[in-house]
Amino acid sequence: MSFDLTDHSHARFSPLTDSWVLVSPHRAKRPWLGQQEKPGRNDAPEHDDKCFLCPGNTRATGEGNPDYKSTYIFQNDYAAVKLEQPDLEPNSLDSDPLKERLFKIKGVKGNCFVICFSPQHNLSLPQMAKDTITNVVRAWSDLFQKLEKETIEEGKPYKYLQIFENKGTAMGCSNLHPHGQAWCLDSVPSEPAKEFENFAKYEHEHGTHLLEDIVTLELREKERIVCQNDSFLVIVPYWAVWPFETMVVSKRRIPSLNQFNEEERIDLAEIIRNLTIRYDNLFQTSFPYSMGIHQAPLNADEEELSAAWFHMHFYPPLLRSATVRKFLVGFELLGEPQRDLTPEQAADRLENQDGEVHYLSNIE
């Protein structure tokens, strides 16, 4: 009997994070008697008078939203980081050598923003027109450039802009109005920093960028491609952790949003719409996920620009239906990540969705 990747357990290495994931495809056959999620739906009205994000409404802090007609960005009323706070002085801490070695601490400054994708309350990205999503991409780019300018001209300590979206209550989203967030910190967060380190290490050893080689290999093998256009490729990564995890990668070396041309902004909008439609169609549900952009730091130097390559991660929790989700518990928390469905099987199922809207949760 020969080894079968679709039936026998094996581990796959992620060069992005320098870690392994256990793949156990035979476990997909096990019965499920665990927790059942409610299928994702959005049968809300086009405008909700009680929504803190709808145009013209008053937010929880008493601030009023303008009657916006397109993508709207405002400073988060409950930001996770503050711009105005005292510096953490080293001499203000206990000088015990053991504590200094083990209990490391640093102050963090920054700002957070809410990005309303659309004024229409009952839409999600796959239900929006490509032009609407293109406006979102432009807003991301404009925010990136604005924060770079503020860093230079006003001395604000911004270093990295983490743009993300949590879609659906399964991912902790408390407001279903279509929106994302952008957290801007004075340092590079751990996950992108880990990628930058591995990108630089790979290029030093092989003379090419890691994502450049991934694009080349995936286009050659055609086993994990979900969809693509002239500028972007969507794959289920060879080392994916979440069952239907995907990665959107620019085909050319673009460090960050502010270096996109207009065609690439439109292409990114198109690929986001194409992918998220496939997600919704897969289980006929408003498919939950956490999505985030990884790109170069703000005002990046030559070394940082060399390491960076624009890409997006989509981490959806659903496993085998609209009601059964993946939990990272037990071995996944204490040993290493584990998945039941092979990345190739997941890519095949997503690719076979035709990319046309069949699931319209807001009109059911």
Explain briefly what this protein structure is.
With 364 residues, the chain is α+β, with helices and mostly antiparallel strands. It has eight helices and twelve strands.
Q: Tell me the number of structural domains.
A: 1
Sheet having the most strands: 9 strands, antiparallel
CATH fold label: HIT family, subunit A
- Find the structural class using helix and strand composition: alpha+beta
Q: Based on the structure given, which CATH architecture is correct?
A: 2-Layer Sandwich
Textual characterization of the structure:
- It is built from eight helices and twelve strands.
- The protein is α+β, with helices and mostly antiparallel strands.
- The chain has a single domain (43-84, 100-353), classed as HIT family, subunit A.
- Strands 3-4-6-5-10-11-9-8-7 form a nine-stranded antiparallel sheet, with helices on both faces. Strands 1-2-12 form a three-stranded mixed sheet, with no helix packed on it.
- A hairpin with a 4-residue loop joins strand 1 (10-14) and strand 2 (19-23).
- The longest helix is centred in the middle third of the chain and has 25 residues, at 130-154.
- The N and C termini lie far apart (49 Å).
- It catalyses: alpha-D-galactose 1-phosphate + UDP-alpha-D-glucose = alpha-D-glucose 1-phosphate + UDP-alpha-D-galactose.
- This is Galactose-1-phosphate uridylyltransferase.
- It comes from Kluyveromyces dobzhanskii CBS 2104.
- InterPro entries: GalP_UDPtransf1, GalP_UDPtransf1_His-AS, GalP_Utransf_C, GalP_Utransf_N, HIT-like_sf.
- Keywords: Carbohydrate metabolism, Galactose metabolism, Iron, Metal-binding, Nucleotidyltransferase, Transferase, Zinc.
